[in-house]
Amino acid sequence: MTQTAGKVATNESEALFARARALLPGGVSSPVRAFKAVGGTPLFIKKGAGCRIEDEDGNRYVDWCQSWGPLALGHAHPRVVRAVAEAAANGTSFGAPTRAEVELAALVQELHPAVERLRFVSSGTEAVMSAVRVARGFTRRDLIVKFDGCYHGHADYLLVKAGSGLATLGTPDSAGVPAPIAGTTAVLPLADEGALRDFMRERGREVAAVIIEPVPANAGLLLQEPSFLAALREETTIAGSLLIFDEVITGFRLGPGGATAHYGIRPDLVTFGKVIGGGLPVGAYGGRADVMALVAPEGPVYQAGTLSGNPVAMAAGRAALEALMDGGWATLEARAAATEAALRPIVEAAPVPARLVRLGSILWIVFQRDAPRAFSAVDGVAAKRLFPRFHRALLDRGVYFPPSAYEVFFASTAHDDAAIAQTARALREGLSAATP
Ligand code: PMP
To answer: Could you tell me if the CB of 124 is within 6 A of ligand 1?
Structure first.
């Protein structure tokens, strides 16, 4: 299981990547998977169990990517696998209402303090896109405010200064987004209450919604002061704008009530993805009943989906949430705390300035002395210089981190002591290897 240090053979991954590149742009189905920021060939994963994955060459890794967040219980959790198999055996999609969506909706409403009613979709991007449309419909305003470094999926008007994926590729914004559409989004810096209050006092009456990842985790982990989030709530209320918490990462990972409960600040709308689907493609948006009443067919804001509320995905989400309710959240916090306890001393003793940042089961190693709160405070030069060698050194020691310095990594309930110890050893050597 544990691998000794040294370059591992990746012939199968290389052959598959060569084929993939001819077929799929960049050889991948989503850009950050391509290893562009770290070099080398992306690993093609054959299977996973708990906190471990195996690639097509048979190499095994402790996995800290966990599908970029959805897998709070690790890979192939027996309860989720059983639920998926049972649901699939009864038919995978009907395009008609099912009991499964009512049951998952009831669970989400019961667990999350900001959700009175909700709508299921199939991805985080769709959830955010739809929530923004509802906010625009409700307020009859067009302008959206987002924060530099926050990622909210790839809808045109949100692909502005959007953190990791774009930062990794070195492009501030995407091509193909018409300027007038990008112009419906205003971007403010994180952690700057003055800039926020000035903007809202001046233009708040034009603002349909302010959207934020309350725990910004797409440009590293840029933890905000609770007072900043409180200011956001106050200014949006004064201006008659809606506050949207994008909880695609934090929802049901940071505990049952996500970041909303963690900070005790209630947004008008919330978006979910990742954990809510237990590893299958699910997203959701919800919030105030009076706002959600605008969604078609009840109201005039159109939003639809052939596979929305898909019964197999609903079953996976429900199984995952129920496992988290049955002690899973406590285990998740315990495993994440054990991870921090093992890794922090090693990070702090590294031959280069480095910090470990953690909130719940979301962790980040940043190559600078102070933990940044804004994207502009992240030392991109150090990240670019140190991270590729660091990442490679970990891979060679059987530890899989997301392949970008701007990405956080995720603990799951399945990260056992052996996996954490292996990671700690690899990290000690990896941090030395990263030092020029
Ligand atoms: N919002 C946030 C906060 C995210 O982290 C992501 C994905 N990383 C999204 C939205 C988009 O979700 P998806 O990739 O499922 O479209």
So the answer is: yes
Atom of ligand 1 nearest to the CA of 125: 16
| Type and span of the H or E element at 335 | helix 329-348
Query: Which residues make Cβ contacts (< 8 Å) with residue 61, sequence separation at least 6?
Result: 43, 52, 53, 54, 55, 395, 398, 399, 400
Q: What is the DSSP letter of 328?
A: I
Q: Are 35 and 42 in contact (CB under 8 A)?
A: yes
pLDDT at 140 over 60: yes
Share of the chain above pLDDT 90, in %: 89
The answer as to whether 22 is a domain residue is yes
Sorting pLDDT into bands at 50, 70 and 90, what band is 17?
A: very high
Instruction: Tell me, rounded to whole angstroms, the distance of Cα 254 from its chain centroid.
Output: 12
Please count the other Cβ atoms lying within 10 Å of the Cβ belonging to residue 290: 11
pLDDT at position 4 is 46
Shared domain for 294 and 428, answered yes or no, is no
Does the structure show a pLDDT above 90 at 165? Answer: no
Other CB atoms within 10 A of residue 382 CB:
16
User: Is residue 288 lining ligand 1, measured as CB closer than 6 Å?
Assistant: no
Is 3 among the domain residues? no
> What is the domain range of residue 25?
11-76+327-433
Contacts (Cβ under 8 Å, ≥6 apart) of 154: 125, 174
Establish if 63 belongs to a structural domain: yes
Pocket test for ligand 1, best of 68, 147, 151 (most atoms within 8 A of CB): 151
pLDDT of residue 63: 98
* Distance in Å, CA 295 to ligand 1 centroid: 21
Please say whether the dihedral angle defined by the alpha carbons of residues 260, 360, 123 and 118, taken in this order, is positive or negative.
Answer: negative
Checking if the pLDDT of 414 tops 80, the result is: yes
CA 316, CA 80: separation in Å to the nearest integer? 5
* Residue 181 confidence (pLDDT): 87
How many whole angstroms separate alpha carbon 366 and alpha carbon 347? 9
| Interval between CA 152 and ligand 1 midpoint (Å) | 6
| Whole-number Å distance between alpha carbons of 160 and 286 | 24
Once rounded to an integer, what is the mean pLDDT over residues 350-360? 95
Nearest protein CA to atom 12 of ligand 1, as residue = 124
Given a cut of 70, whether residue 221 has pLDDT beyond it is yes
Cβ atoms within 10 Å, residue 376: 14
User: Is 207 found in the same domain as 260?
Assistant: yes
Question: Residue 341, Cα to own-chain centre: how many angstroms?
Answer: 23
**126 alpha carbon to ligand 1 midpoint, in Å?**
9
